[in-house]
Design brief:
elongated, mainly alpha
């Protein structure tokens, strides 16, 4: 250990580097990209200021894309289930019995 008591000595280069700012920026960017790629609304990012009507409207607009994706998935899932039921009841001839036929017609 060297000790120098001169006022011209600068020992800052010996300090451990602080990467908190860089790490915070990386986390913020990763979080933003996560919400963008998953197409989910980030409700933590919404400002709920004094004008609550405007914030309600902005929340509604942000949720609109998510609702569209959910309804699209629901339609695809329902269509797939209907095709599955048609295949199962068509192959096994279970639809000939009256109770199962009524249930199949109600579903399909």
């Amino acid at each position: 250990v060297l000790v120098n008591q001169s006022k011209d000595v600068d020992g800052k280069f010996l300090e451990r580097p602080n990467g908190d700012g860089t790490q915070e920026n990386l986390l913020n960017r990763l979080e933003e990209k996560l919400f963008l790629t998953s197409m989910v609304t980030n409700l933590n990012n919404i400002d709920s200021g004094a004008n609550s009507a405007a914030s309600d409207y902005s929340i509604e607009l942000r949720m609109q894309a998510m609702r569209g994706l959910a309804s699209n998935k629901e339609r695809k899932y329902t269509k797939a289930l209907r095709e599955l039921y048609r295949g199962v009841f068509g192959v096994t001839n279970l639809a000939k019995t009256s109770i199962i036929k009524k249930a199949a017609n109600a579903i399909l």
